[in-house]
Amino acid sequence: MSSRSPFTSRYSRRQIAKTAAAAAVGGVVLGGVSFPHAFAQATPAAGEAELEIFSWWTTAGEAAGLEELFKAFTASNPGVKIVNAAVAGGAGSNAQAALQTRLSANQPPDSWQSHPGAELKARYVDPGYTVAIDDLYTEQDWDSVFPEGVINLITIDGQKQLVPVGVHRGNVMFYNKDLLSKNGIEVSDDWTMDDYFKAADTLKAAGVPALALGSKDTFAVVQLFENTLLAALGPDDFTKVWTGEVGWDDDRVTTAIENLAKYFDSVNSDHAALTWDGAADEVYAGKAAFTSMGDWLYGDATAKGKQDSIGWVNHPGTGGSFVAVIDGFTMPKGAPHPVNAKNWLITCGSKEAQTAFAPHKGAIPARSDADASGFNDYMKWSAAAFGKDAVVPSLAHGSAASPQFQSSVNDAIVSFIVDLDVETFQQALVDAQADAQ
Ligand code: GAL
Predict the structure, then answer these.
(1) CB 356 within 8 A of CB 73
(2) 397/323 Cα distance (integer angstroms)
(3) 60-98 pLDDT, tens per residue?
(4) In this model, does residue 15 exceed pLDDT 60?
C-alpha cells in the first residue's frame, strides 16, 4: 500500500513484543483483567433489572469471549440480570433472520451484534432500527481511540451507529503443525496459491485431505472464495469489485473460481456435514492439514485447549492484506432497558473489556490504545498486520456488499459446491451485481 492505512493501529512493535502482563492495581480482578474503576456509568439503572444481548456467539471461543464482556458489564452494573439471547449459526445467518423478525415486530433486544459497513447500513440503520450514538462517542472520547478506518465504517450518513469491540482477520490459513512437518511442507506469509496446491498434492498423495471445510456453513465457502479472490486480484482491485469498478466478468475472477473448484480435489469428504468449528476439529486432530477461516478459530482452539496443535499463516497469495471482520454492538431504537443498553455499549468500548474479550474470541481489541503487552503470539501477529497491511472488507461477514448481493452469492455458492461449474458461478456473480444496482 502506498499511503498510510487509515486502520493503522497504535500498537507499537515494542508494545506488541512485550510479554509481561501489565500490573493490576487494586479493584476487581475478573478473567485476569483488573477493573480498578467502574466504567463511567450512564446513570443509575434504577428499575431496569435486565439487559438482553443478541448475538450468534455460541461456539466455544465465541461464548467464552461473550462471557468476558458480560463479566465486565456486571463489574460496573451489579444486580442487572443479563439475558443471553444468542442464536446459534456461524456468521449469524440464523441469528440475523431471527433478529429481523423481532425488529420488524418492534421487539428489539437491548443491543445486538453487527458488522460495520454495508450490513449495518442496510439491515439496521436505513430501516430505522438504531439510534445514533455520536454523543456517547464524545462522552467516552472514543473518536481518538478507534482507528480512523473503523470509525469511517461505523459512521453511516454522518452518524455513528456501532461500538466496535474486536477486530478479526478473515484471511488466515490455520494448519496442523505435525502434519505439515511430517510431510515436509513449509509455509510463509508470502506463499502463493501455487505453493498451496503443490502442498495439497503432497498431502493427497500421503492420504491426508489438504483442506478441512465445513460447508454446512455456507459462509465458510463464501469466505474461502473471497480469500481466493483476494489472492487473484490483490487488495486494490479486490476493493474495487464491491464498487463495480472491477467487473465480475474479469479473467482474474475466473482464475479465482477455478482455484475454488480445485480445493475440492483434496478436501474432507464429510464437508457438507460439518460447520466451521467441526472442520477446525479435523485440523486439531490431524485428520486434515489446513483450514481457511477467520481467526475466531484461534479462540475456538484456545477454548478447547488445542491451540498448540495449530500454526497460522495468511491465506496463500494474500500476504500484505488484512480482511477485517469487525464485531460491534448497536443502540436500538426502543431498547427495553435503555440505561442498561447504554452501559453495555460503554462496557463494550472500554479498554478493560476489550482486553479481556480479545484472547478468548481470537480477535484483537478494536481500540488502538489497548494494552498489547499481554497479547498472545497469534494476537501479536494479527495486530502487527492490522497496523501495516492493506485492510479490506469482507463479503462473507457483511461489510463489503449489500445483504441482497451477499444472499445471491450464498445461493450461487450452494449450487457451486455441488456442480463446481465455474462459468455458471461467474455468471451468477455478474447477475447479482446487476440485480443489486
Ligand atoms: C463472524 C463474526 C465473528 C465470528 C464468526 C463465526 O461473522 O464476526 O465474530 O463469530 O462470524 O461465527
Answers:
(1) no
(2) 10
(3) 999 999 999 999 999 999 999 999 999 999 999 899 999
(4) no
Structural contact between residues 360 and 49, judged by C-beta atoms closer than 8 angstroms? no
290-293, strands of its sheet edge to edge: 290-293, 172-176, 310-314
Nearest to 263 by CA among 172, 199, 217: 199
Instruction: Quote the cell numbers at residue 346.
Output: 460503554
Asked if residue 52 has its Cβ within 6 Å of ligand 1, the reply is no
Index of the ligand 1 atom closest to the CA of residue 296? 4
Write the DSSP assignment of 167-188 as a string of letters: EEES-EEEEEHHHHHHTT----
Report the pLDDT value the prediction gives residue 5, as an integer from 0 to 100: 58
Domain architecture of the chain: domains with CATH: 48-166+327-385 (3.40.190.10), 172-317+402-436 (3.40.190.10)
As given in the structure block, the three cell numbers for residue 46 are: 434504577
Q: In this structure, what C-alpha cell is assigned to residue 427?
A: 455468471
Kindly tell me if the per-residue pLDDT of 23 is higher than 80: no
pLDDT digits (tens, 9 = 90+) for 298-322: 999 999 999 999 999 999 999 999 9
Indicate whether residue 62 lines ligand 1 (CB < 6 A): yes
